[in-house]
Amino acid sequence: MKIIIYNIDGKHEELAHEWSKKTGNKIKIVHDLLTPETVELAKGFDGVAVSQVVKVDNAVYPKLREFGIKQIAQMSAGVDMYDLDAASENGIIVSNVASYSPESIAEFTVMVGMAVVRHLEQIRKNVKEHDFAWENPIRGKVIGQMKVAVIGTGRIGATTGRFFHGFGSEIVGYDIYPNEKLTSFLTYADSVEEAVKDADILTLHMPATKENFHMFDAELFSKMKPGAILLNMGRGALVDTKALLDALDSGQLAGAGIDTYENEMPYVPKNLRGQEIDDPILEKLINHPKVIYTPHTAYFTDQALQAIVETALEAAVEVVETGDTNKRVN
Predict the structure, then answer these.
(1) Which whole number is the average pLDDT over 135-158?
(2) 9, 134, 176, 280: which one has the fewest Cβ atoms less than 10 Å from its Cβ?
(3) pLDDT at 30 over 90
(4) Cis peptide preceding 269, ω within 30 of 0
(5) Degrees, nearest 5: CA angle 35-37-41
(6) What is the 3 state secondary structure string of the chain?
(7) What sequence ranges are listed for the domain D-isomer specific 2-hydroxyacid dehydrogenase catalytic (predicted)?
(8) How far apart, in whole angstroms, are the C-alpha atoms of residue 124 and residue 222?
(9) Is 235 a catalytic site residue?
(10) Which pLDDT belongs to residue 99?
(11) Catalytic residue among 235, 262, 310, 314
(12) What whole-number distance in Å separates Cα of residue 137 and Cα of residue 118?
């Protein structure tokens, strides 16, 4: 079987070649995105895998159908870059990797949360300036005595909740599909507003949908406990970033850990060292003294990368061989 893989490099590419040797399936690596131009390279292949980060042009789907290709395996959980209806109309099954090492993201979330609570960035800045004083701006709190609201209690959110609970934190959860198996360590709230009103830490682990775009806006921030902390390792579109910055500036929120920014696509994951960023909101987010910003790296571990590559490629093979996969999203 021959599979063409778009827009991967580095460790992903290395793992794809290892998978190819292990399974005997042939692969071709294309370092470009899947576009109406690059889709022509898929002719003669059995399957397609993609690490797509921008919207796929609808002209791609009929072209794949013309080539006899019946699937696209996305190498991530998010599939908002695909028009799933257009894909279905052309007989294209889109699959994703719904879960790839929940522990990787959960550990990162807790790590960043603790760094915000304990003012680690400010402490490091002070030390570099030879300021070794113990003063109020660097005085922290005990995680185990804080209430944590987990919004989205799928695998990643549930794992994050368990980790915080391990410190002794009280956990409140919200999900449109509550999981009763999790009530041993969390209590479900009936609404997001109820979940956040008394929380010291709010951590987001929801997929991005049209319905929850900018769910966390000025109005919701105003309903949060003054001095609360926001952690977003989920999806950038969940948060109105300007409203977040305003809430931080006003003191309504005490800090934030942000790994996903709503307009990150022009910048992440690129090395733009020495270049200016033409996005004043992102620039302010990066330099805000109350924010720890990271470029969508919560998932970035050896274990997660291997799971992403192998799961996506196996889903591609499954569709080619059987006509379907339980990883499909349309």
Answers:
(1) 97
(2) 134
(3) yes
(4) yes
(5) 95
(6) CEEEEECCCHHHHHHHHHHHHHHCCEEEEECCCCCCCHHHHHCCCCEEEECCCCCCCCCHHHHHHHCCCCEEEECCCCCCCCCHHHHHHCCCEEECCCCCCHHHHHHHHHHHHHHHHCCHHHHHHHHHCCCCCCCHHHCCCCHHHCEEEEECCCHHHHHHHHHHHHCCCEEEEECCCCCHHHCCCCEECCCHHHHHCCCCEEEECCCCCCCCCCCECHHHHHCCCCCEEEEECCCHHHECHHHHHHHHHHCCEEEEEECCCCCCCCCCCCCCCCCCCCCHHHHHHHHCCCEEECCCCCCCCHHHHHHHHHHHHHHHHHHHHHCCCCCECC
(7) 18-330
(8) 31
(9) yes
(10) 81
(11) 235
(12) 10
What is the C-alpha to C-alpha distance for residues 193 and 198, in angstroms, rounded to an integer? 9
Lateral strand order in the sheet of 47-50: 26-30, 2-6, 47-50, 71-74, 93-95
Place of tokens 């799928």: 154
Q: Domains of the chain by range and CATH?
A: 2-100+302-322 (3.40.50.720), 102-293 (3.40.50.720)
pLDDT recorded at residue 53: 81
Q: How far apart are the first and last CA of the chain?
A: 24
Structure tokens at 210: 């049209």
Query: What does pTM read for this prediction?
Result: 0.89
The CA-atom distances, in angstroms, between 222 and each of 117, 196, 208, 246, 252 are: 20, 10, 22, 11, 7
Among the listed residues 262, 264, 310, 318, the single catalytic one is 264
- Residue identified by tokens 């209690």 is 153
With a cut of 90, say whether residue 11 has pLDDT above it.
Answer: no
- Per-residue pLDDT of 204-258, as tens digits, reads 999 888 899 999 999 999 999 999 999 999 999 999 999 999 999 999 999 999 9
Mean pLDDT of the chain: 97
Active site residue 262: no
Q: Give the mean model confidence (pLDDT) for residues 184-200.
A: 98
Kindly report, residue by residue over 73-87, the tens digit of the pLDDT: 999 988 989 999 999
Q: Which one of 118, 214, 296, 328 is the catalytic residue?
A: 296
